[in-house]
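Researcher: Please translate sequence to structure tokens.
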Amino acid sequence: MDEVDRAILAVLEKDGRISNADLAERVSRQLGREVNVHRIAPESWAASTTDPFITSVRERPLTQLNLDQEA
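Model: Translation complete:
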């Protein structure tokens, strides 16, 4: 089975009410795959940067997913 790297980019509320673990668990359940969370501020994503993680994600193909929010 081929492994595919996935990155989910989302705008989250600034107050940080949801922990990385809760977010990963929720999205993992929706996608049926393991998810690791790496939070980046919108300003950091939009800015010119040499950050290796952001650079790597930006260089790869992106596909928009429309996930319904859980109640």
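Researcher: Any highlights?
Model: The mean pLDDT is 76.
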